[in-house]
Amino acid sequence: MSVVAQPVAPVAPPVNTAPRISTAELRTALPLVSVRGLRVAYDERPVLDAVDLDLFPGEIVALLGASGSGKSTLMKSLTGFAPVSAGSVRVAGHDLTNLGRGELRGLRSEVGQVFQQFNLIPRLSVLTNVLTGALHGAGAINLVGGFSTAHRQRALALLDRVGIAHKAKDPARSLSGGQQQRVAIARALMQRPRIILADEPVASLDPKLAGSVLELLREIAVEDGIPVLVSLHVLPLAREYSDRIVGLRGGEMLVSGRTSSLSAGDLAVLYESADEDPDAAGEAAHAHHDA
Ligand SMILES: Nc1ncnc2c1ncn2[C@@H]1O[C@H](COP(=O)(O)OP(=O)(O)OP(=O)(O)O)[C@@H](O)[C@H]1O
Predict the structure, then answer these.
(1) In angstroms, what CA-CA distances link 15 with 24, 185, 223, 284?
(2) Is 208 helix (H, G, I), strand (E, B) or coil?
(3) Cβ contact 193:226 at 8 Å
(4) Disulfide engineering: 64 pairs with which of 54, 77, 234, 247, CB 3.0-4.6 Å?
(5) Rounded distance, CA 222 to CA 20, Å?
(6) Residue minimizing CA distance to atom 29 of ligand 1
(7) Could you tell me if the CB of 81 is within 6 A of ligand 1?
(8) 72: Cβ below 6 Å to ligand 1?
(9) Parallel, antiparallel, or unpaired: how do β-strands 60-64 and 45-55 relate?
(10) How far apart are CA 41 and CA 119, in angstroms?
């Protein structure tokens, strides 16, 4: 099937914050992620098939789909952790299907990742947790030599940006879930990522905190021109915080469009079981995109 993703202008930036990339530039920008005809199979069982996806600078894209539809697998394919059996995956100019192990490690250092369980080191300070982001792709030498003053200053500036510089010396385990996710986002930014993948980053947070974390991710997308792909289970959050929505069902991408142009009916097909006439559902979704 052919699903054509359109670049979109970002939402309005926060007051007093000028975007670093103009809307005109965004519209003509090349995608930082370009996936075509992706097929991933485990033990010859396909879990993604014919998936196309583009991510453009400055946009936040919500990835929807029922449990088991392939969202995490799609994210893993963008860092070379999924067994790709057909198609192409280009990330920040690299064709992942042709990279050696060393090159893949280098590419992963350009991909910031945020997870549902935050994945912080609980006993270490908030500052040290952020500093570990600088280790991506740097090898053991940094561990031996310790972190430079410049690294520390940058980590503190990032903590300030995400609103928890006052917690820098506290152990990560003493922070609330929402604060821990902010630390994890600062750690991802420490890598100077080209893209950010957030796999259910708000699933462990209450609705208010969930909104504030998604707002932060949206600000980062807009201000830094970094595309953010975020998987979500809560439709209203996807509607409120994303520029575009892509949706998987049974490993197929049935929905791809601007958030503002997708109706509840378009998204409902994602949560119908696969034996409820998938062809009809797929046609309905496509009818909408092609409109
Ligand atoms: N390493 C693996 N080996 C075998 N099957 C796998 C593996 N990883 C994922 N799968 C299968 O691939 C399918 C898609 O899984 P995936 O985790 O990508 O779904 P998801 O949409 O992220 O689900 P959830 O919302 O529950 O996290 C599932 O059927 C899953 O069982």
Answers:
(1) 20, 21, 12, 39
(2) helix
(3) yes
(4) 247
(5) 8
(6) 68
(7) no
(8) yes
(9) unpaired
(10) 27
Using one digit for the tens of pLDDT, what is the confidence trace for 161-180?
999 999 999 999 999 999 99
Please tell me the pTM assigned to this model.
0.85
Cβ neighbours of residue 232 closer than 8 Å, sequence gap 6 or more: 62, 63, 64, 200, 202, 238
Question: Cα separations (Å) of 117 from 80, 94, 182, 223, 229?
Answer: 21, 29, 12, 26, 17
Phi and psi torsions of 88, nearest 5°: -130, 150
The pLDDT tens digits for 81-102 are 999 999 999 999 899 988 888 8
ipTM of the prediction? 0.97
Distance from the CA of 44 to the center of ligand 1, in angstroms? Answer: 14
Domain boundaries, the chain: 1-110+195-291, 122-192
Architecture of domain 1-110+195-291: 3-Layer(aba) Sandwich (3.40)
Pick the more confident residue, 137 or 2. Answer: 137
